[in-house]
Amino acid sequence: MSPRIDHRLVGPVAPGRGPRRPLGLGEVEVTGGFWAGRQRVNRDATLPHIAAKLEEEGWLPNFDLAASGGAASLRRGREFADSEVYKYLEAVAWEIGRGGDAGLEDRFRRTVARVAAAQEEDGYLNTNFGRPDQRPRWSDLEWGHELYCAGHLFQAAVARERTRPGADDGLLGVACRLADLVCDVFGDGGIESVCGHAEVEVGLAELARVTGSDRYAEMARTFVERRGRGSLRDIEFGRSYFQDDVPVREADVLRGHAVRANYLAAGAVDVAVDAGDEELLAALRGQWARTVAARTYITGGQGAHHQDEAFGDDFELPPDRAYSETCAGIGSIMFAWRLLLADGEEKYADLIERTLYNVVATSPSADGRAFYYANTLHQRVARQPADPDATSPRASASLRAPWFDVSCCPPNVARTLASLDAYVATADADGVQLHQYAPAHVRTTLDDGREARFEVRTDYPASGTISIVFSDDAPEPWTLGLRIPAWADGAELRDPDGVVTRVPAGRAEVRRAFRVGDEVRLELPLAPRVTFPDPRIDAVRGCVAVERGPEVFALESTDLPAGGDVADIAISGAPRERDGRVWVRARALDLGGAGWPYASTEARAAREIGEVALVPYHDWANRGPSTMRVWLPAAVG
Questions:
Q1: Which of 106, 160, 287, 295 fits a disulfide with 93 by CB distance 3.0 to 4.6 angstroms?
Q2: How many angstroms separate the CA atoms of 484 and 453, rounded?
Q3: Average pLDDT of the chain?
Q4: Are the beta carbons of 633 and 590 closer than 8 angstroms?
Q5: Distance between CA atoms of 425 and 484, rounded to whole angstroms?
Q6: How large is the greatest C-alpha to C-alpha distance in the chain, in angstroms?
Q7: First to last CA, the chain
Q8: Which residues make Cβ contacts (< 8 Å) with residue 536, sequence separation at least 6?
Q9: Are 228 and 243 in contact (CB under 8 A)?
Q10: How much is the pTM?
Q11: β-strands 604-616, 581-590 pairing
C-alpha cells in the first residue's frame, strides 16, 4: 500500500503562514511541453550521470571510507563534496515523488545506507573533519562548509519525508541527529558564529517545518541574526564575501558571493515568515528589489565577478565577464519563491520565469550529461569541447562540461527540475493562482473544502495561448488567478462567456462557479522585441538585446555566413519571426585598421548582410564550438 501523503506539503517550501500556499507535486503535474521534456532528460540521463560521477570521483566512496575507519588521506574531492551527494539524494527524492520507479527507490536507499554508516555516535556527519589525521570539527567555519553540507542533508531529508512520509530508510533520523548536534554546539552557550557559506539556515527552517521542532526553527533564526556581526575571520575579499559585514536586517542589497547571498536571503525569509517578523521581511523585500533593479543580468543571472563569484556594484554587469553562476540563479529562485508566498506579488514569479528559461535551462546540454557552471553573455572565442573523460575547472567558458572540480551546479539543476511542479501554482482561501505556464493537471482542495480541478493546455513559450479547461462543476464560486508577465503588453483574457478583456501586467482574475468544459483563455503577445539596457550599465551602452516572451535570444556564429564573427555585427530594425525562428537585419561594422583600436569617429555599419537568425540563449552551444553574444551593437548609419 502506498503511504498516505499530504500533497499540500509535497514541495521544497511549506511555510506555516502567509497569504499563499504552494501546491505540491501531488497537486500539480506538468504533463508536456518545454519543461516536461527537460524533466524527462533529468530523470533518464542527468540523475544516472550524477550518480556515476559521484562514484568515479570518490565523493560517495568518501562515506564508505569514513565508515570503515580508512586513512583520511584517501578522501577525495573538495571540502564540500559531501553536499553534492545530499543534493543528489534530494533530487532523487523529488523524482520518486513524481512517480519514480522501483530502481530509483533502490538507488536512493542504497545511497542513504552508505551515508548513514558514516555518521558518528553523537550525530556528527562530515567526511572531511574530525577523524584522525583531519582537522578538528568546526575549526574552519570560514571555508570548511560543515554547516553548509549539513543544510543540504536537511533539505534531502525534508524532500524524502514529504514525498514518502515515514519511510524506513532512516534519512530523516540521520538528519535530525545531526541537527540536534548543531543546536548543541551552536546554540546558547556554544560557538557563537556562523558558516562561511549560508545554507544551514534554509535547511533547518524546512526541517523544523517537517518535524515541528521549535529548536530547529530557533537555531535557524539564531544563525540569521548572527550573520553580519563579524564572527568570521576577515579574508582578502572582505567579510561581505560571506555576508558577515552587515546584519541581515540592516542590509539594503545582496552583496558578496552570489550563491551564499541568495541562500542566506531564502533562509531569512523562512525565519521571518514563521516568526511573523515583518521588520525582517521588509528588509529582505528591499534587498530583493534593489538587487533586481541594479545587479541582475537580462537573463536573470546574478554575479559579475569571477575571482570571488560575487555581485559587483550597482550596474556593474559586464556581459563578456559575466559569472552568472547556475547555482546563483537557483538561489535567486529560492529567494523569489519565498517572497512570492509571503507577499503574493507576481513580480517575483516574473524573475523566476526569466531565470528558469535563461539560466537553469541553459546550464544542461540537450542530452543532460554536460553543464555550464558560469553563464557568459558574450563568448569571444570558439573554444573546443570539454574532454568527456576529464573534470573541468569550474568556470571554464567553453562548451558545457560533464563534471567540474567544484560540481555544485549539476545536482543543483537536477533537484530544481525534479521539484519544478511545485513552483507552478499556489492557493489561498478563495482560489488558485497560476504563476508558471506549462501543460499541466492541477487539482487541489481549498481551505473550506471546495475542490478546484482543471487542465492547462498550452505549448508556451512556442506560442502565447494558454487555455485552462475545467473538469468539475464547482458548487460555489472560486477565483482563478493568472500571472500577466511585465513584458506582456497587450495580453488578452477570454472568460467562459466569451468576453475578451485586455489585461495589464500583474494578475488577472476570473471568479465564478466553474462548470465542466468551461474554458478561460489567456493570449500573451509573443512577438520578438528589442530591449534597451539602462544607460548606467556602461558595458552594454549602445547595444540592444532581443527577447521573445520569457526567452532571451543570442546571435551565434553558427548562424552567420561562413567565417563570420559576432564581433563584426550590428543589427537594425525590428526583429521578426519566420520558419519558427527569430530573425534580425544585420550589418557588418566598418572597423577600420587594426593598428590602433581608437578613432575620432564612431564605427559605422558599412554594408548590409541581410537577415540572420538568432538562437534562444538556452540553446546556444548545442551545435559545436561558436562565438556568441546577447547584447548586440545597434547599427549607426
A1: 160
A2: 21
A3: 94
A4: no
A5: 14
A6: 79
A7: 72
A8: 294, 314, 315
A9: yes
A10: 0.97
A11: antiparallel
